Amino acid sequence: MKIAFKLGYFGDNFHGSQQQSNRRTVEGEFITACIDLGLIRDRKSSGFSISGRTDRGVHARCQICSFFTDHPERAVFAINEKLPGDIWCFAYAEVDDSYNPRYDVFSRKYRYYFYEEGLDHESMQKASQYIKGVHDFTSFAKIKGKDPERKILESEVFTDGEYTVFEIEGHSFLWNMVRCLAYALNLCGKGLLSPEEIRSALENPGMPRYPAMPPEGLLLWDLKTEAEFKPMIPGEKSLEFKKEEERKLAQGRKILEVIN
């Protein structure tokens, strides 16, 4: 049968999500865990598929993968104990043989978190509204021969405590598209770019491409699909990993506070 998992990961120590030889990746770790548990023989024969790629250093709150296995119960109860702490599964679904998360996910939502004081949120929000709809994103992505046109369902900027958040939802995205848009919005927030200049770049896609913001602020937030997922018990490894990351962050803040 085919089973699908919703998974999250902390992207700092991965060379992206896509499997690569001699590189630590999300797919590589997940497939290795499945092979070690006897769930699959290899990627190809299992029909392993994932809903989309994330770049090196990008995090995911919700990603979806699926594969065929003769041991679905073992997969659900054992996968979190076999995965490394910086990947965790939090839901599963028994899906049709034809299910493919790359094509059966009908919208993807990302968030980019800015940690800067003094950003003009009103200007950033105004600019984010121009992003909604169907546009040619040549000025905001690495095209690599692909169709530069994408449909954006939602786009907004809001605050979450000390953070400014850019949230965007669409059917699909181009390489570096969200981070390039975040870069332009960041310039708006600093008063170095007007919202109308972002609109102009969307209406006149021959303009130079904006650079991308660093990957560590980007989070694949949510995916929409018709598959019905059931919650899973989190593994001890991921809980310990998160505690250790919190400890290191707190320690680092204190060092920055007292260092000369």
UniProtKB/TrEMBL annotation:
The keyword tRNA processing applies. It comes from the Archaea. Residues 127-223 form the Pseudouridine synthase I TruA alpha/beta domain. Pfam families: PseudoU_synth_1. InterPro entries: PsdUridine_synth_cat_dom_sf, PsdUridine_synth_TruA, PsdUridine_synth_TruA_a/b_dom, PsdUridine_synth_TruA_C, TruA/RsuA/RluB/E/F_N. Substrate binds at Y110. GO terms for molecular function: RNA binding; tRNA pseudouridine(38-40) synthase activity. Its EC number is 5.4.99.12. Formation of pseudouridine at positions 38, 39 and 40 in the anticodon stem and loop of transfer RNAs. This is tRNA pseudouridine synthase A. It comes from Methanoplanus limicola DSM 2279. The gene is truA.
